Amino acid sequence: MIITAMFRAPLSRAPLSRRRCIQALALGGLARRAGAQARITIRLSHVVARQTPKGLALERFGELVRARSQGRIDVVVYPNSLLFGDADEMQALQLGAVDMLAPSLSKFGRLGFPEFELFDLPFLFETRTQVYRAMQGRLGQALLAGLARQRMVGLGYLDNGFKHMSANRPLVAPDDFAGLRMRVQGSRVIAHQMRALGARPVVLDFGETRRALAMGVVDGTENPISNFWTQRMHEVQTHLSLTHHGYLGYAVVVHQRFWAHLAGPDRQLVAAALEEALAWGNAIARSENEQALAALRESGGIHIHDPSAAQRQQLRAATAEVYQGLERRIGRQWLEQVQQEWITG
Ligand code: LMR
User: Is 93 in contact with 111 (CB distance < 8 Å)?
Assistant: First the structure.
C-alpha cells in the first residue's frame, strides 16, 4: 500500500516521474527473479474491484499457483488500478514493471490490435454461447497469436458478459442519447457507436470514471452490472438501462520475456492454474452479474429500465453504420470469420 500510494500520486501529474517509477519497478522485478531462482513473484495488475468476475478469477489463479507450488511461486494481485491504470499498464508490462495483465478486449485496439475491437461491435452477439464460440475457436486463437507482434503472449480469455447504458435519464431509444457525453474505453468502435447514437464519446481511464460521473465531467457510461455495482456508480447515476447492446471480455497477457524466463515446469504450472481459474471465472461471470443486478435493485437507489424489443431494434438500427467503420479499421475478414464461427459453431 505504501508503494502504491507513493507511486500513484506522481502518476497522474507527471509523465516523466511515471516513467521513472515504472522503470524502478521493472528493475526490482527482474533482480528479484534473477537473484533467487527458486522463488518467484508474479505481479498482476488490473483495474476493477475484487468482487467482480475478473477480480475473483485472478485471486483464484493466485491461490491455485501458491497451493500447487507449495508457496514457492507467489502471485500478488493489485486490483482497482492501485498499481497501474488503463493509461500505463501496457507500458509497465513492456518494461517488466508488472508481469501479467487482463485488459478488456476493447483496450487492445489503440495498442495496435484493432481486430480485437470486433468484440465491441454493437449487437454483434446476443448470447454468451455465441461469444464463447468465437473466442474459443480459431478466431480467438488467431487474435491471441497476433499479440506476438508486440512480444506479448495471450494466455486466455475471461468473460464479463454484456454491457448496459447508464446516465441521469433513461437510455432506451436513440433520441435519448442526444448530446450526452458518454465515457468510453479507448476503442474506436465504441466511440463510433456512441456517435451513431448522437452522443459524444469521452475516453477516460476506468479508474477515473466514477469521479468524472460524480463531477459531471461526463453524463453517462456503459459497462456490465458487476463493474457498475462494485464501483458504486449507482450513487452518481440515476438511471440504468438494460440495453445488452455490447459485450465485455478480457484477454490475459504476459510479456514474452517474462514467459521465457520461467522454467518449463513452472510455466506449465502457471498456465494450467490460469486455465482452471479462467474456466471458473467464466462459469461465475453470469451469476456475479445477476447478483450485482439484484443488489442494485435492492438498493433502490437507481431507476432500472428494460428496453422493449422494439426499442432495442431501434438502437440496433441506429448503430448499424458502425459495421462499415469496422471494415476499414479492422478488416472485413475478421467479421466474416466471427459470423461464420458462431453461426456454424
Ligand atoms: C472499462 O470500462 O474500462 C472496463 O471494461 C474495465 C474492466 O476491466 O472491466
Answer: no
E-only strand ranges, 6-126: 40-45, 73-78, 100-101
User: Which ligand 1 atom sits nearest the alpha carbon of residue 103?
Assistant: 8
Q: Angle at which helices 138-146 and 332-344 pack, to 10 degrees? A: 150
Distance 334 CA to ligand 1 centre (A): 23
C-alpha cell at 340: 461464420
Residue with the smallest CA separation from ligand 1 atom 1 is: 206
**Cα 68 to ligand 1 centre (Å):** 30
Strand partners, 255: 152
Decide if 244 contacts 269 (C-beta within 8 A). Answer: no
Pocket of ligand 1 (CB under 6 A): 47-48, 104, 160, 185, 206, 223, 227, 248
CA of 60 to the centre of ligand 1 (A): 19
How many angstroms separate the CA atoms of 29 and 22, rounded? 11
For the stretch 7-47, pLDDT in tens is: 333 333 334 355 545 555 554 454 345 444 579 999 999 99
Radius of gyration of the chain from Cα atoms?
A: 20
Q: Are 233 and 166 in contact (CB under 8 A)?
A: yes
Return the ligand 1 atom nearest residue 160 CA. Answer: 9
Give pLDDT tens digits for 45-71.
999 999 999 999 999 999 999 999 999
110 Cα: distance to centroid of ligand 1 (angstroms): 15
Q: How far apart are CA 137 and CA 131, in angstroms?
A: 10
Does 326 have pLDDT greater than 60? yes
Residue 15 phi/psi, 5-degree rounding, is -55, -35
Model pLDDT for residues 153-195, shown as the tens digit of each residue: 999 999 999 999 999 999 999 999 999 999 999 999 999 999 9
CATH says 2-338 is which class? alpha beta
